[in-house]
Amino acid sequence: MIDPSSHLVVVRGGGDLGSGVIWRLRRVGFPIVVLELERPLTVRRTVAFSSAITEGSITIDGIAGRSVTSVEEAADVAGDGIVAVLAQPSLPSFPVEPSVVVDARLAKQVLDTTIHQAPFAVGLGPGFSAGTDCDAVVETMRGHRLGRVIWDGPAAPNTGVPGEIGGASADRVLRAEGEGALYWHVDFGDVVEQGQVLGHVDNDPIAAKIRGTVRGLLLPGPVTAGLKIGDIDPRFDPTAIHEISDKALSIGGGVLEAVLVWLGGST
């Protein structure tokens, strides 16, 4: 009988897709520590555990997360059943060795996660190859392979084109056209029109390319050219900004499957 509570899981990246992983694992009892940047680059902040860094705490679909300031506090909070979120981009040493490390940063390339960082290492999406960079890879590309666990070889390569939602693909994603200070005139859940100015990067306007509901806004502050800074949902679903997406839950299910298969000794 597997006891999830005895296996610490460290998730590197608490964005919206990583939060689907965190939610699935915590839901069945795994203690979770999330490692994030001091200024997270998450746009879907209403459904991301990374928001605990700036807000102090967040609850997503009944699972609570809390900002912590040390690895010792992180281990204690995770042991109490709360997702511990630590501003720590590199992988630190913990009082108890993690059983699992999940790289959920979606960098589209291998950064500094290796197959030797934990007894079981999982990578999400492009750049990772199972058996080389990590023990298992979970597919993140939309389509019939989304959420599939890969035990040997790579995930699908990065296409550079956002997945289609409600008939919109690249046009639903907002990116900074130049470097500067980002600020917004809209908020989560606002319905916006095509061409509407949503905010600025310095003096350069950010205009919506489609009509829809605002579901993603990067924290105001400095940005670089090309950075993803927002997301417009053309489906006009008022619950979308408050619920983990189907994609995130599918990826989370793949990670949960991989971890349970490994703990069961069936890999």
Describe the structure.
This protein is α/β, with parallel strands linked by helices and 267 residues long. It contains four helices and 19 strands. The chain has helices at residues 16-27, 52-55, 71-79, 246-263; strands at residues 9-12, 32-36, 57-60, 63-68, 83-87, 100-103, 120-124, 129-130, 136-138, 149-150, 153-154, 173-175, 180-184, 191-192, 197-201, 204-207, 212-217, 221-223, 228-233. It has a nine-stranded mixed β-sheet, with helices on both faces. The chain has a four-stranded antiparallel β-sheet with strand order 12-19-17-14, with no helix packed on it. A four-stranded antiparallel β-sheet has the order 16-15-13-18, with no helix packed on it. Strand 3 (57-60) and strand 4 form a beta hairpin.
